[in-house]
Amino acid sequence: MTLGEMEDMMDSCVRCSKCKFIPQLVIQSKRFSSICPSIDYFNFHAYSGGGRMITASAYYKGRIELTPEMLNVLYGCTNCGGCEVSCKWVYELEPNEAIHELRVAAVEAGVGPMLKHKKYIELVERNKNPYGEDPDKRPAWLTDDITTDESSSTLYFVGCTASYRREEIAVATAKILNSAGEDFRLMGSDEMCCGSPVYRVGDEKSAIEIMKSNIEQFKEAGIEKIITSCSGCYNMLKVEYPRFVEHDIEVVHTSQIIEGFLKDGKINLTEKVPLKVTYHDPCHLGRMAEPYIPWEGEKIEVLSQVYIYDPPKPERRGAGGVYDAPRNVLKQIPGLELVEMERIREYSYCCGAGGGCKSAFPDFALWASNERLEEAESTGASTLVSACPFCGTNFKDGIESRNSKMEYFDITELVLRSIGGDK
Amino acid sequence: MLEKDVYAAFKKIVGERNISQDPGVMDSYAFQWCNEIESAQRGEEPQRFGVRPLAVVLPKSTEEVQAIVRLCNEHDVSYKAFCTGMGPWAGLSSPRGIQIDLRRMNSILEIDEKNMYAVIEPYVTNAQLQCELFRHGLMHHAQGAGPQTSPLASHTSFVGPGFTSPYTGFSGRNVLGVEWILPDGEILRLGSYDHNGKWFTGDGPGISLRGIMRGWLGAYGGLGVFTKAAIRLFSWPAPKEWKWKTSGTIPEYDWDIPPFWKMYVLNFEEWEEYQNAMYELSDREVTMVATTSAPEGLAALFTNTKQEAIESIFAGLLAKTRNYIVMLVAAHTEREFEFRTKLVQSIMEKYGGNDLIEEGVTVPKPMHYGETVRNMLGGHAFRFSNCFQSTHGGMDTIAMAVRLAQLNQPVKQKYIDKGVIGDDRGLGVWITSYESGHMAHMETPTVYDPTSVESCLGYAAYQDECNQMDLDEALGMPFFIVGDDVHNFYAERTMNYADWIRKIKAAFDPNGVSDPSHYVKGGERKK
Known about the structure:
Oligomer: heterodimer
Distance between the termini of chain A: 51 Å
Number of helices of chain B: 19
Strand content of chain B: 15-25%
Radius of gyration of chain A: 21 Å
Number of strands of chain A: 9
Helix content of chain A: 40-55%
CATH topology of the largest domain in chain B: Vanillyl-alcohol Oxidase, Chain A, domain 3
Strand order of the largest sheet of chain B: 16-13-15-14-19-20-18
Shape of chain B: globular
Structural class of chain A: alpha/beta
Largest interface: A-B, 62 and 75 residues
Structural class of chain B: alpha+beta
CATH superfamily of the largest domain in chain B: FAD-linked oxidases, C-terminal domain
Number of domains of chain B: 4
Helix content of chain B: 25-40%
Largest sheet of chain B: 7 strands, antiparallel
Number of strands of chain B: 21
Strand order of the largest sheet of chain A: 7-4-8-9
Order of helices and strands of chain A: HHHHHHHEHHHHEHEHEEEHEHHEHEH
Shape of chain A: globular
Distance between the termini of chain B: 20 Å
Radius of gyration of chain B: 23 Å
CATH architecture of the domain at 126-263 in chain A: 3-Layer(aba) Sandwich
Largest sheet of chain A: 4 strands, parallel
Strand content of chain A: 5-15%
CATH class of the domain at 126-263 in chain A: Alpha Beta
Number of helices of chain A: 18
């Protein structure tokens, strides 16, 4: 949808501020009642979901221009979708979609994205990854004891962060797959960024090119199933790609495939992992992971001024994210105790890294990770676990900055320990 | 734009990070729900963008607020402070004005369990305060505007009815001491605080200024800035070891209902039976909640989506529902619970009522109990069209509330027939009793389309007609009067009270810089 198509929706915001908090019913304490790292850090209303929707409407109406300060407003947001979950408790509004569309409009107008984003987009185009690393070194994490099958129709799509920054996740994932007897292949140095960092900052044109190119490559390689250990890649491949490029490739996250391995007895968690852990739901694996289901139908006035959709329009409210698979896996690890934070599942608090914030607003991203770490520490857990290399990077930075005693592990690392694969 | 030196002076007070004059940032403050009605009334396209502030500041302390207010007085700049900010009364009316966003002042300063009061800053929300109070076995009165809004704003500046009003009264009744930055920048602490550092009463040994500070309606932020408030607390009818606990996934959460709680929807065929039952239920202090809406409203109260609400309407809910009272019996002990539930049964039978829950006509889930005490049910009314507004209503006796509801029906039906407002067959009201006594609140929530000129004007005309009816039928005092014109309208037949409010405004705001917005203007601004 364009901003024009969203105008009535944007103008229907009643500026109630619900978008700043987790759904009101699930608030258990003042300290952890917020949903939006951006409003928490920047404070002006424009930095909330509703505030950004209002500025998007103001921009569409020609009331304002995209000044440098407005670009801060627009991009000082992790695009985590928390605002939308809370808003939709009552309203039929989509603030997170409006934020994305304003980013697209900013890029089309030639003012967005921000300089740091432009730089990494260039790197993606040149080096196939936003870090500017050598594409030939992408599979450098691969150790001799890992077996791949280049004829397999199953692809382990490693992703840029696990390839270059969190290699331990790539290693753990590959070893778990080996242990379960799941054949897979890699794209190696031919693997291209999934396009998430490009898409999230509104450069939709470039992102669609990447999507098309990747799908073409997958099809040429005969790929029928993609396994990803990155929530950002998962979200792109599973949720965003089908909106722009037709494909019927099955996409699964490591937490889901491991859950399946355990159910089928393909791996056994035999080694004790004596840790008290708490689990962070990555936004892109959780509330943002619901598919966009195309809808065609009519808007019918059933009572004066009251409309419904016939057939009912599928809603994206965050309920259908991947929440249970990682928890089911963690609960089966012997010796491990899982305790929950106050903000979980669809109302999880974002780690602060997404939406281009880690590069353009590093102080904000670090601050948000500290907020989340404080919540994790408050559970009494010694270890924070998640299922996204990018969240992991930001949390590790946060742990270092606050001299926290807390450790961070990806779920694959703990599973690998429990199957004895780290020995 | 503010003059450079004036902007620099504000920046010096709050720091660079906490001030902005960017038009986009300003527009997020200019935009307010219900501005579209006022713009339609002015003959403009209905729109929510109102007066754009020249700057927004985010103070962190009383001292910073005071310095901002003093600077405003010095440079003839209007100001309006607000918290979460929902409604045009939170916005500016003066084009040479700034907005004071109190978001950074968000601490719970004190919870005095023994003396049952809490001292809070402006941006503490109802849900946040409630969570912390439960740990002490206490609760506060939360206004119907919702759990995300500020109890300080309501207690100091609005009437503030809520879903627990039978037990907790209304906001205006529960404010104790306050820290008040007067319009000219002087700090005034009302109540006992200035004498012994404790906030247990809103009146000190001298004359009481609470009437001036807020009076009946409150000043909607048009008379200075409140930076702290002590509010009265109530016993929370649940064991101390009980914890607010939810599980599940949106929109189907589960919630642990405390022991000795039970909800009823008592239904009465005629208003007279309803009225008698409401008096008796209130008088016997039997219920924490006693709320009434249209049958259509009942469909929205105990469902989780618009689709569900509409389906329940078409499944026959309307035919089985007349004049009902949603009640929550919430007792501390088993014996108290038994006594109260027997009493409810007896009153229901005495007045020929039936319980719609027992009959399966409506089925509140455990999460709806939670939503009731978290004051979330009013928000459900937004589900129908993303928008509604209420008439000015009345706050008087239970009998008056019933009379208002009866007189309102044909008026509302007229506008429904024109197709400009939502169809609730004219029955859409919200009534709640107050303080386990004879008092009640009544307003008529009304769905309209904020993007349609016809609908906005239609709603505005309906509201005007309701106001006229208030006077012609002597329907008591409205609970909500916004702006000079509406005050003048009512004042004509109510001893010109607005003249006295204007005198207060002029005396306390000699430079006329505390933006009255939807309060009253105090006269010409001093040049």
